[in-house]
Structures are given as C-alpha cells and as structure tokens.
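Pinned message: reference record for Formin-binding protein 1-like isoform X1
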Amino acid sequence: MSWGTELWDQYDNLSFHTQKGIDFLEKYGQFIRDRCQIEMEYAGKLRRLVKNHQPKKKEEEDYQYSPCRAFKLVMNEVNDLAGQHEVIAENLQTHIIREVNMLVKDFKEDRKKHLQDGARMMTSLSNQIATLERARKNYEKAFKEAERALDNYQRADADLALSRMDVEKQRTNMTIKSQQCEDAKNEYANQLQKTNDLQAQHYQHLMPDIFQHLQELDEKRIKNIKNFMTQSVDIERSVFPIINQCLDGIIRAADQINEKEDTQMVIERYKSGFIPPGDFQFEDLSALKSGDAQPMIINNAITSIRPEAITVRGTMSANKLKKRVGIFNIFSSNKNNLSPYGENKEDYSDLPPNQRKKKLQQRLEEISAKIQQETAARDGLMKMKGVYEQNPALGDPMSIEGQLNESGHKLDKLRQEQHKFQMYLEDAQDNGASIMNVSPSVPGRRLKSQPPRLINGAGQRNHRHSGGSGGEEESLSRSASDSSVSNPTTNNKQSAPGTPLPSHNSSHSPESGLGTSHTSLPDSDEPEPTDIDGNAQPEYYDADQLPALGMCRALYPFEATSEGSIPMYDGEELHIIELDQGDGWTRVRRQGDTEEGFVPTSYIECTLFNNS
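Predicted structure (tokens):
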C-alpha cells in the first residue's frame, strides 16, 4: 500500500489529510495539557483540604483519642496522594507535552517542505504541457497556412490570365509556408516528446516520492500518538504502588482505632477521684419547732445542689461555664468578675485529686526535660572551655564565663522548681486518700489541698548542703563536679565540645566560644589534677601531637563565623583528630597544615583508620 501508486492523482486530498492529522496531534497535546492542569488543581485542592482540617491549637488535647490520631494519619496519607497527582502532572508535562510540541513543529516543517516540492513539480509539468499546447497550435496554424498557400499556387498555375511573375510569386509563398509548417511540425513533435518524458517521470517517480514522504510522516504521527497514549498510562501506573501504600496507610490508621482504649482515656481525663454522694437524710419536721422550720428549709435547699456541679471543675465541661456578673458589671473590672473555675492555681489545688496529680506529673516531666537539656548544654560549655584551656589558639576560655554563670542560675531555678512541684505532688498523694472518701454532695465538704510543706524547700536544702554558703556557688560547684564525671583526670584525652549544631539556633556553638573545665569555675578552689603519686599531671594533649583518627570529606561548604571552628569547601578532605562526642561537632585538621578546629558532623563523611 503506497500513496504514490494508489493516490497518484490525489495531491490536494493528501495535503488536506496531512493537515488534519497534525491538527489532531495538537488537539491531543492540548488534552494532555488540560489534564495536567486538572491533576495540579486536584492536588492543590487536596492539600488545601488537609490544611483546612489540621487540628487547631485548642483541639490538640482532643487529638489524643485514637479516631483523631487516625484522622491525622489519614490526612498525611491524603497529602501524599496529592503529591502523587503532582508527580503525574509533572511527568506528563515533561515526557508527553514537550514531545508533542516538538513533533508538531517538525511535522509542520516537513509537510510544508514536501508540499512545496510537489507544487514545484506540478508547476513544471503544467508549464511543459502549456508549451506543448502552444507548439501544437503553431503547427496547426502553419499547416493550414501551407495548405492555403498550395491551393493558391495551384489556382494561379491553372489560371492562364496570370503572368509568370504572379505564378512564381505564389509558388515561392507555397514553398515558404510549407517550410514553416515543417518546422512547426518538428517543434511540436519535439515538445510532445519532452512532455511525455516529463509526465512519465512526474507520475512514476517524482510525485510518488513526495507522496511516500507524506505517507511516512502521517504514519509517524499515528505511531507517536499510540506511544503517547501508552506512555501516559505507564506514567500513571508508576505511581500506583505509592498510591496503594497511601491507601494501605489509611487502612492501618483505621485499624489503630480502639474504642476500649478511648473509653479508658476518657475515664483518666475526666475522673475526679470523688465517690458518689450518699443518700439524703430524712428530716422530720414535726420534731422541730415551727420557728426552726424555715432555716432547715433554707439549709435543705442549699444541700440539694447537683453533685456533678462540684466535680465539674478541671474537666472539659468547665470551659463552657459562663462567668457570673452582676447587673452593674459595666462599672467593674473583668478581673473581679472572673469565674472561680477560670485559671488554675500554681499547685492545681482547685482541681479534683486525679486531675491535680496528672497535671503535677506533666509539669514535673516538663521541668525534668528542661533540666536535662540545660545540663547537656552546660556539659558542652565545660568541654569547650577545657579545649580552649589546652589550646588557647582555638579561643579564649574566659569568653564563656558569663554563659557558665547563666547556665548555673538556670539549673538552680529549675531544680528549685522541680523540688517545689515534687512537694506539691507528695501533698496531693497524701491528701488523695482522704479526699477520695469525701462525698461532694454538700458544698464545702471537699477538703482543700494544703500548700506544700516547703514552698522554698529547694533553697533551704541547698543552704543546708552548702553549709550556709550561697546557693549559687554551691550549684555551680555541684554542676562542675557533675560535668567532670565525663572527663576523669586519669584519662589523657579531651572530649569534643558539647555544643549543638548551628541549625538549632543555639548560642552554645563553637562560634560563641563555649567550653570550660571544672578547674576554672568561678569561686572554685579545686586543686589541679594529679596522678596517683601526687604529681601534677601534664596537659591532656598538645595540638602538634594529636594523631589522625581517620579522614573525612566535606559534603557541604561550611563558613566559620568566629573562633573555635574552621571553614571548609565542598569536597575538601580533612584529617579527623577527635570524634563527635554526641554534641554534633567533630574536630579536624587540614592536610599538610596545622590549622584545626571544629566542623558540624552532619556536614562531613567520615572514614576511620583500621587500628587493628
């Protein structure tokens, strides 16, 4: 099947057909483009849906229940689904729409070129046919004139009245016309031969080649449309595994919903610790005097308050209680009109027993976490200062004395606060048993928690431990002794600086000059470290004698903003002279140089030497 042989005379129709094919390819490209836009809009709406249904800050407490936790997981999976639809749109845009645009451009150019060649060949054939027609007409005209000249000569020759000159004139005219007719005949035969040759070449070779190119162009277009359709399906199928994972994640989130666990959580959240009220006592009014009946009725009305009104404090329904205001509240301050169920006291003594113990335990956990964080930061300061003392070229040890003092004050305050809340918790536990046995049916019957026995007990205990000296000096020396446990004087090795990474925006970094040792604390009289014979030990190490533990390569460029750290460029190889001690920093030295300092551990790739 060839357009050149089967459709040799359908030039115009083939031109129209190829144009329609290119228009259809453009239409398919627009379809893919619109689908990409729909996929992106769908992904954007999914992300907006997830964002709009994220829990508000006031709803975070309710998201401890399993359906709410599962719903958060479902929203995360839906957000991932949105990402997969974005991947589909991006891949369609990259692999299909771009190819379609390039093919449309190429097809238009090739079609135009082939049609121009075909038009030029058809014009050439038409011109040749026109030349043949002119030669035929000239031959026909010359033939008629030659016959007319011959007829005139024959009549003149037969006419005896004419002179010989007239007869000779007609004979000469006949000869000229006959020669012209012969020339026109030869020209006509020559043009006929040329036209037949050109026409045969045109319909047997030239135009079939043009039609063959157009046929190949159209077949290529059809094949590419088929490939684009298949490729679009492959692009969508490629994200099916991740979409299935998202759907499986939704199933797993639903499986985590546990109604029994939620029931227990509701009990723990709202349980007051009181026992149900007892029976109302019968009041025999006949045994009373008529004068005493009215006070008894008033007292009975007071004691008939609903029990749940007493235990509602500290529960979710307490948030819905309205403030009681007088009729003239416009002249009073909002502070004076606050409900007694408003803000909790510091010791949470206005909450039911169970709720109070729960709040106190949460508060103690928060304080303990802060103490651990501050202790780790102080240990980092101690280590950094020790490094500065052993190698002053890295920094001035006295530059972080203020930070050490501030850290000591923070630790003192946190420990005092921890002790205070421990006393609150002990008090709540001591009073818990007696409160559990009190019926809340009558207002005022519930025992109010007593204030802690030692509100300032932390300060008093510190005073006893310090032997009457200031709490600040005692806490500093105690923190120093605690930190020196990780740096025993019998080890001839200095730990790496205990500083967090710069990305944490902490002031405890090599740039800020952290680090200290217990031998240089404020008001510290501890002797220098000695060995078992009582001789003073030398410094932990000398900078020129630190052996290389391995090699490291910089994964990212790092700029040192101040003393203690050194800059490095991407791909630079350095010697490791001290490993990361858990603070996020590694001590390195440049190759062939004595410059050394600290760099972030997450910025380098380490390879340690095999010492075995």
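Pinned by admin. Summary line: The beta strands are 550-554, 573-578, 585-590, 596-600, 604-608.
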